[in-house]
Amino acid sequence: MTTTASKLFFGGAVAALLSAWVYGWGTGGGLTGVMLLGFKGGVGELMGYTVLVAVSAVLAGTGVATSVLRDADPEVQAALVRLDAPPAVPAPAGASYWPALGAVATVVTMVGLVASPVLFVMGAILLVAVTLEWMVTAWSERATGDPAVNRQIRNRLMYPVEVPLAGVLAIGVLVVAVSRVFLTLDKNSTSLIAVVIGAVILASGFMIAYRPHLPKDAVAAIVIVGALVALAAGIAAAAAGSRSIEPHEEEHSGAPLVGPLGTSLDAPPDASLDLSELTQ
Fold it and tell me: Which residue in 84, 87, 106, 218 is a FRET match for 127, CA 20 to 30 A apart?
C-alpha cells in the first residue's frame, strides 16, 4: 500500500517520464525510441532527455523508499515490530558540520559562477553531496531510540558511497586549487609554494599515523581546515587571473637555412616566385 509521500513521488516520476517522451519526440526523436529509452530509434536532444529520465528514476526510487519506510511514521513502525508505543528518540548530541559545509559549498558555487567554470562545477557537486549527507544524517538520528544503532544504520548506508567519493573530491579540489595558485604566481614563488605544500601534507600524514588514537574530530578538523585553505587560495588565484606567459621565440645562429631549391627557410615564402627560376 502506497503512502501519501510515495504517491507524490510516484506522480512526479510519471510526470517527468512523460515530459522526457514529449521533449524527445519534439526535438526530432522517434516515438518508439523515446518510449524505449533509445533502444530502438532516436531520442532527440540527448542531454535534456537524459536529465528528465534521470529525474523520473530518482523520484521513483524515492517513492519506493518512502513506501517501504511508511513515511518514517513511528507509530506504523512500532506496529510492524509489535510494540505498544514507539520508543522515545533522544535529541542528537554533538555539533553538526553540515550547515557550515553547506554555506561553504554555496559560496564556492556562486564565486565559480562568475570566476571559473571549474569552481562552479566543484561547488555544485559539493553542494549536492552536503545536501544528501545532511538529509541522511537527519533521518538516521531519529530512526530508532538507540543512538548507537542509528549511527550504525547511517554508516552502513553511506560509507560505501561517501568514502570513495570523498577521496576523489578531495584530490580534485586540491589539484585544481593548487594549479590555480601555480598559474598565478611566478616561477620562483611556485617552486617555494610546492615545497611548502608537500611539507605540510607530509607532516600532517606523519602526525596522524604516529598517533593512531587521535580523536576523529581532530582529524576531521585538520582535513576541513586544509580543504578550506586550499579552496580560499584557489578562489583568490582564480579571481586574480593567470600570469602572463611570453611566447617562446626560436633563434637560429649562424648562416640562414637554405632549402633544396636555393630558397631561404627563414624568410617567408615569396608568392611571386617564377617557375622558370626553379628550373635553372
Answer: 218
